[in-house]
TrEMBL record:
Signal peptide: none annotated. It comes from Roseateles subflavus. It comes from the Bacteria. The keyword Cell membrane applies. This is ABC transporter ATP-binding protein. InterPro entries: AAA+_ATPase (IPR003593), ABC_AA/LPS_Transport (IPR051120), ABC_transporter-like_ATP-bd (IPR003439), P-loop_NTPase (IPR027417). CDD domains: ABC_Mj1267_LivG_branched.
Amino acid sequence: MLETRNLTIRFGGHVAVDRVSCAFVPGSLTAIVGPNGAGKTTYFNLISGQLPASEGQVLLDGEDLSALSAPLRTRKGLGRAFQLTQLFPHLPVLENVRLAVQARQGLGLKMLSVWVNHKALIEESMALLERVRLSSKAQALAASLPHGDQRKLEVAVLMALQPKVYLFDEPTAGMSVDEVPVVLDLIRDLKREGRHTILLVEHKMDVVRELADRVIVLHQGALVADGAPAEVMALPVVQEAYLGVAATGAEEVVA
Ligand SMILES: Nc1ncnc2c1ncn2[C@@H]1O[C@H](COP(=O)(O)OP(=O)(O)OP(=O)(O)O)[C@@H](O)[C@H]1O
């Protein structure tokens, strides 16, 4: 289980994430919504270790990860998607995934012969590329891929690490209409597997409604609502103030 306790960060006098306490169980998909600047991405950055908390803790399965760097938190099972920096742009697509598989296997590799090991790594990497529908582009350089494909590659790299927790920050942003379903299918598949904890920052309410078991709302850094999607999204306070839409049932969040 992932848990944040009183998680807080201040930038000068501005409190971007304000004492957020929340627990997320394996097998669940929680959407984090709220207007621009509400603190959603910053909350992710605090969980993954990209930013140091001013106060509070991040715990995974009871272990306090607060003092660990981002790479160490990744090793513990916190997987953050959609940071393009995690790709190696000048390496082929397949190599990007293979390096992630290899990083996960770590020292265990020494037990295998170089050849068996290499073959197994390539097979696993190709299987992951098939899952994200990029196997035909295995030899292309990551930098040459269109934006949507780079995002799919990031998902493959993340899956290669086999994290316990997936943090998806606007996974379909900037994607073309035909690319969106591929990424949503992947997230749906991960959810179906039932053992991951998935957190999703998403502005599209139809996606939230379909994928999420639970919605939490951040406003000015604080957690202001938490519950089942229909329940939370129906709250007038969420509709009007926090999501920036009229309380008449607009479908898309303007955030
Ligand atoms: N490194 C930083 N230094 C100073 N202020 C920051 C920093 N990172 C975030 N902020 C501020 O913290 C607040 C929360 O930003 P954040 O990006 O987390 O919001 P968000 O809910 O993800 O917004 P959006 O929906 O637009 O992505 C904003 O006021 C932002 O300007």
